[in-house]
Design goal:
Length: 112
């Protein structure tokens, strides 16, 4: 093999070696990038879980309050329902509570 051919092979070998090193470095950078993305995703997941737990607690409180209002209105209707004007107002209040319950997806248990 002549000197020119050996020089060309040496150039190709250096190019391949440089390319291999560059690919290796890129791989390390990509691994760090993917690890950062996974950390961000885990942090976001934790943040949303915390928010959902908070919202769920608030919803439970709202549902309890709506149930209390419904019971109080039904009790009031039983006590003063025959007095003119009150029955209509109480029924209107119960209709509004029913709309809120429907919007919240609350299942209403019918008392036996």
């Amino acid at each position: 093999m002549d000197k020119a051919t050996k020089d060309e092979f040496a150039k190709v070998h250096r190019s391949i070696s440089t390319l291999s090193q560059t690919v290796g470095k890129m791989g390390k950078v990509m691994e760090k990038g993917f690890a950062a993305v996974m950390e961000d995703a885990a942090e976001t997941r934790k943040e949303f879980t915390t928010r959902f737990i908070s919202i769920d607690g608030q919803l439970v409180n709202i549902e309890q309050e709506v149930r209390t209002i419904r019971r109080e209105l039904e009790t009031l209707r039983d006590k003063v329902g025959n007095i003119e004007g009150y029955g209509k107002e109480i029924d209107h209040g119960l209709e509004r509570i029913a709309a809120i319950e429907k919007h919240l997806g609350m299942s209403r248990k019918v008392a036996s």
